[in-house]
């Protein structure tokens, strides 16, 4: 497990962040939302994620309403989502929004969200 420091933002730059994450544990999912977005997510403790530009966000919950998917109302990019895990609050960061990271080159674990 290798944790590194990353920066990222939405397309228009209204939402920006820093995160300490291990990109050896990214997830792709086939739920109705992730499939359409093509998301590659990394899950981190909420304490490892910090907004450096806290522009307005719009949020969306679906299915079991456990995860708050947030996105920029200007450019529409989902930067992160917030939820809870057995270990406490987590943030799911969309690796597609990270600077200098090619999410297609990451070795992601598949999660069958469609079966949920």
TrEMBL record:
Pfam families: GFA. One of its GO terms (molecular function) is carbon-sulfur lyase activity. The keyword Cytoplasm does not apply. Residues 6-112 form the CENP-V/GFA domain. Keywords: Metal-binding, Zinc. It comes from the Bacteria. The keyword Phosphoprotein does not apply. InterPro entries: CENP-V-like, CENP-V/GFA, Mss4-like_sf. Belongs to the Gfa family. This is Glutathione-dependent formaldehyde-activating, GFA. It comes from Ketogulonicigenium vulgare (strain WSH-001).
